[in-house]
Amino acid sequence: MTVFQGTGALFTLIAIFGVINYRFIKLPDTLGITAVGLVACLSVSILGFNHPEMVAQARKLVAQIDFSDIVFHGLLSLLLFAGALHVDLSRMRRQRRAVVMLATVGVVISTAAVGGGFYYVAQWLGHPISLLWCLVFGALISPTDPIAVLSVLKSAGAPESLETKIAGESLFNDGTAVVAFLTLVGLATGATEFSASHVAVALVREVLGALVLGAVLGYGASLLLRGIDSYPVEILITLALATGGYSLSEVVHVSAPLSVVIMGLVIGNHGATKSMSEKTREHLFNFWGLLDELLNLVLFGLIGLEIIALSLQLHIVWLGLAAIPVVLVARGISVAIPLLALQNFRRLNPHSATIMTWGGLRGGISIALALSLPDFHGREMLIGVTYLVVVFSLLIQATTLGRLVRHLSARQA
């Protein structure tokens, strides 16, 4: 099968999932497509008891999709740029302390809490995994997924300040998470030795380097846009910025996700007001809004399809179900500690910790990180557990977040 044929088949499947969801299930498009994909894959697996060759062929086809590469070198740059483009920077500045604390200290606390908790849960269930690999799982599952979070927050109805905290944290916490993930994988494989100074230098390089590069490229593109009054060319410049800037960040070894977020924030706030006509702004934001929705559908459709390629044995299912409360409790701790530390600076919504705990959605980034793990004893277990936590996050937490927000708002009133 050629790349073109594979892409056509993938789009056709996802479109069919979308139609089924729209006509019969009526969940939000992204979540509904994920759910239909899951049901379709589970149905194929059940049919496979009598027709094992069918499952083998389906797994062979899905295994050709390099999910990790598609996410990190295809969808992520465009989705993060589109998400950041629509963020009001003035609102985020007012919540900067909370965003920074949650995206750094919060991720570290969550990594340790998830890793420690899952280590004991795995031992208790009779499938021990080394503490270092459990901490690796903590690192890959701790960052909230900006793609999932931003798509759900549009309709959740959370208070403005709380929505800004959740969105800001999800956009900025990848830098911390990737450094933690790579450091822990290096320790677990024996490729590196732990050094606090090495971790600190890596974190500073990844984060500060991304901030500088993203700002320079973003403002440079804004200057370029200022001398042009052709919205097709200006849209093309932003596409080049999102994809080329992401690639350049990887070449110079700074956080590519964080760098492209900064570019999106600069273009969406400074560039849109200083360098574009009203007509260009309208076309640009409409284009990126539509692209954001379409690519979200593709990503969530892929998440639904990936289950057919996984070997979800019964013990992995039990581990995944046990990991869900571990991840939720760790999320609550990692949110509560930074928010309590910030109480002296700003009056906080009394339900902030509850909403942010339940609204800490995991998505494609966690799955992509899990699939990038090297071979080791327990790799398939960690991938399966990650997938189950993500599915719970998308199909249970995401679909009930709006109701939780409305319920807590009514109690407060």
TrEMBL record:
Q: Is Methyltransferase a UniProt keyword of this protein?
A: no
Q: Residues in domain Cation/H+ exchanger transmembrane?
A: 13-406
InterPro entries in UniProt? Cation/H_exchanger_CPA1, Cation/H_exchanger_TM
The protein's name: Sodium:proton antiporter
Q: Which residues cross the membrane?
A: 6-24, 31-50, 70-87, 99-122, 128-150, 171-191, 197-219, 231-248, 254-272, 284-310, 316-341, 353-373, 385-405
UniProt-listed Pfam families: Na_H_Exchanger
Question: What protein family does this chain belong to?
Answer: Belongs to the monovalent cation:proton antiporter 1 (CPA1) transporter (TC 2.A.36) family.
Q: How does it sit in the membrane?
A: Multi-pass membrane protein
Q: Which UniProt keywords apply?
A: Antiport, Cell membrane, Ion transport, Membrane, Sodium, Sodium transport, Transmembrane, Transmembrane helix, Transport
* Source organism superkingdom: Bacteria
Query: Which locations, inside or outside the cell, does it occupy?
Result: Cell membrane
